[in-house]
Amino acid sequence: MSPSLRRLLTTPGTTLQRDTVRLQLEGGREIDVLRVRDPRARRIKLSVDERGARLTLPLRASLSIGEQFLQQHRSWLQRQLQQFQSNDMPAPLVPGTPGLLPLRGALLPLRWQEGRYARLEVDADEAVMHWPARASEATLRRMLREFYEAQTRADVGRWLPRYLPALPRAPSRVRLKVMSSQWGSLAPDGSMALDLALVLGRPSAFEYVLVHELCHLLQPNHSAAFWHEVASRFPAWKQERDYFHAEGRRLKAMLRQLL
Predict the structure, then answer these.
(1) What is the rounded CA–CA span in Å between residue 140 and residue 101?
(2) Helix (H, G, I), strand (E, B), or coil: what is residue 145?
(3) Per CATH, the architecture of 136-258 is what?
(4) Structure confidence by residue, pLDDT tens digits, 108-158
(5) Parts of the chain belonging to CATH 3.30.2010.10
(6) Minimal CA–CA distance to 23: which of 62, 59, 75, 85?
(7) Rounded to 5 degrees, what are φ and ψ at 16?
C-alpha cells in the first residue's frame, strides 16, 4: 500500500480518522483491518464484528505502536475471525450455481433459470432466480436488495394494522436500512427505521422489534413504563431478545455478504 493510502484520512465534519492496514495471518492469508483514531479512546482496542476487524487507537498512540499491537494479537484475531465466519454462514451466491437464500429464519434452496429479465421468485420450498446471460454481480446485489425490501415491507404491512388502534398515531414513515448494531429506531418526528437483516431471521423476532419501536410512540425511553407497554402487546419479548443475542451477528453478516 502506498504511503498516501496508508495515511490516516480525516472525515469532514467528524473527529474520527480512518484508514486500513494490511495484516498477514498465520498460513499466509491477508486481511484488511480498519484502523480508527478516536479522541474518545483511552487505550488501544482490537475488535471483530460482522464488518471485519477494527483497530481503535487513542490520539496519543503512534501508528507503529498500533501495528505492533496487531502483530502481538494476530493469533487471537485469527481465532475470532474463524469463530465468527464459521457460524453457520451459507456460501456466497454465485450466478448460475445452486445455493441457499436466507429468508424468515430458513435457508431456501436456490436454483437458477435462464430468463429474459432478472427476477427472483420464492415459495415455501425453494427460490428460483430467473437470470439473463448478460446480468452482472451488480445486478444480483441490486435485485437481492429490492427483493428483501419488498419482503420486509410485506411483513410490516401484515403486522402493523394489529397494533395501530392502541397507539396515539402511526409512524410518519418507515425506512429500511442496513444497520451496524441497532435493529430499529424511532426518530422524534415519528419516522421509524428498521434493519433490513430482520427479514432474514425468524418472523416472531422481527415482529418484536416492530412492537418495540411502536411502543416508543407511547414512551420515548426504556423505562419500566416502556417495557410494560411492550409486554402488554408482546408477552414473549424476552425470548426474542435472547434470539438476537444468539443469532444477531450471524443475521447481519449474512445480509452484508448478500449485498
Answers:
(1) 13
(2) helix
(3) 2-Layer Sandwich (3.30)
(4) 999 999 999 999 999 888 999 999 999 998 999 999 999 999 999 999 999
(5) 136-258
(6) 75
(7) -85, 145
